[in-house]
UniProtKB/TrEMBL annotation:
Positions of transmembrane segments: none
Listed name of the protein: Uncharacterized conserved protein YjbJ, UPF0337 family
CsbD-like domain span: 5-56
Organism encoding this protein: Chitinophaga niabensis
Taxonomic placement: Bacteria, Pseudomonadati, Bacteroidota, Chitinophagia, Chitinophagales
Family label: Belongs to the UPF0337 (CsbD) family.
InterPro entries, per database record: CsbD, UPF0337_stress_rsp, YjbJ_sf
Amino acid sequence: MNSLQLKGTWNEVKGKLKQQYADLTDDDLLYTEGKEDELFGKLQKKLGKSKEEVQKLIKDL
């Protein structure tokens, strides 16, 4: 998923992630354009998954 696709659907993705992983906070899911790597890093740390796993998880939602 590229940054344009992520930006366009982020609110929907964020809601689904919060439903699936209740321990994620709004701060964990804060999307800032151009800082996708930082977002993936936060999610990796919180979920204990690799960057590829996090990207696949988001893509599959």
